[in-house]
């Protein structure tokens, strides 16, 4: 299928809710719960479990609203996410975020296969890693070739199994007797949990970044929505709800974890844990499916005549090969970098789409370049980096020098995500008003 073919409007609110709800329950939510507790460079946890739950809830709710905003333009126009950016930046300038999106989606798809392989290894007590990676890659590719059928499959069968598995693990953890979530010694044999609430907004940004990672994909699916309300409600509500449930479960598991054991061991040690954890491992393929499908649609913004199904097969092979040769990298740093790019971009999109253009955009291949929107995007990106330059040494060192030059010191209450979103949106609104007057 190419971009010349209109998107069928066949997905109901419940179809989309099942899709987003499944994306909210990720193995990343379990392994990434650690990052919400704001670990320092030595690995010491600076937030308690209770503070982490509050930060994660706030970040996820805000991220869900942002995801809902990103979902509406796709439902209104019927255009994929990166094609929509032709109306925001112009056809040629939209290639810049498109290339960035392709790069990050290939990275996410590769990470997902690695996570599936690692979880499967713990589930089955070892075994050939390459076999798990290849099996996950094949399943991902098959789902991507028939995307609408895959979304309906999630609604009818997988969602029910995931809900049962979540309920079972909550029940088992409560039976184990949860430790004090506000002041406890931390994982058995490990560093204690902290009580420093000054890291609250840093933890909130870590949770928000997970939601934001889906923003540049949202319209790829909501373009098939039967209505804008269904698209917004499913994306903002279903995703936020299940991500909160999954993250809280991951934080509970962290409280039971024993130092030196795998991150998923608390799930496997409870009654029937292996059976229900297998549901999570199998379901994780919908994450890699979403990444591969959206990568193919993003490439079509560059090369619109390429068939999506052919691209999907090639991308499935690519991420499988990458997953065979790579290991998990700096997950927290990766999330921070993704957030710093796409949070301000969403601010620009929301301001221009809803306030200036009111949904009337030129997404043709000849859409004129709009450098003012690029400038607004970069302004928001700079605000994010000044507040939270991340953990990549050479990159963070560069922005630390800029902080010194400006005599700027980030304060604990500053949320890089929220302030960059607002700064980019305000800049886009301002230049839009100036442009209309001119």
UniProtKB/TrEMBL annotation:
Domain of life: Bacteria
Major site of localization recorded for this protein: membrane
Coiled coil regions in record: none
Gene3D superfamilies, per the entry: Hydantoin permease (1.10.4160.10)
Compartments, as annotated in UniProt: Membrane
Keyword Magnesium included in the entry's annotation: no
Recorded topology in the membrane: Multi-pass membrane protein
Transmembrane segments: 19-37, 49-72, 93-117, 129-146, 153-171, 199-219, 231-257, 263-282, 310-328, 334-355, 367-387, 413-432
Ribonucleoprotein as UniProt keyword: no
Record's keyword terms, sorted: Membrane, Transmembrane, Transmembrane helix
PANTHER family tied to this protein: CYTOSINE PERMEASE, CYTOSINE TRANSPORTER CODB
Family label: Belongs to the purine-cytosine permease (2.A.39) family.
Name the UniProt record assigns to this protein: Hydroxymethylpyrimidine transporter CytX
Source organism: Actinocorallia libanotica
